[in-house]
Design goal:
By secondary structure, this protein is mainly α. It has one domain. It is about 55% helix and about 10% strand. It is built from 4 helices and 3 strands, in the order αβααββα. β2 and β3 form a beta hairpin.
């Protein structure tokens, strides 16, 4: 999925910190999916998560606002595809 170039108002540091999700567990809890599903969505549906390069291993991070925007786009896209699907 292509990312939109938006001109949103920047978040203040406190709001940005509350918006941040750290770790696959936090991301999965927010989305209410399993880690396997989240990883599949990262690979196949461009779920907006990235892995940091901390201590050689890294940690998955994302933001609630990015996940919400992605979710709306995926649902909208699915509705478009369903409306164009041919029924037998």
């Amino acid at each position: 999925m292509a990312r939109k170039n938006t001109t949103e108002t920047p978040m203040n540091p406190a709001t940005r910190q509350m918006d941040l999700l750290r770790g696959m567990g936090a991301i999965c809890d927010y989305l209410r999916v399993s880690p396997a599903t989240a990883l599949k969505w990262i690979r196949e549906l461009d779920l907006p998560c990235r892995k940091t390069r901390e201590n050689g291993g890294g940690q998955w991070i994302s933001s609630k606002s990015a996940l919400d925007e992605w979710s709306r786009a995926v649902v909208s896209s699915a509705k478009i595809h369903q409306s164009h699907a041919k029924t037998p």
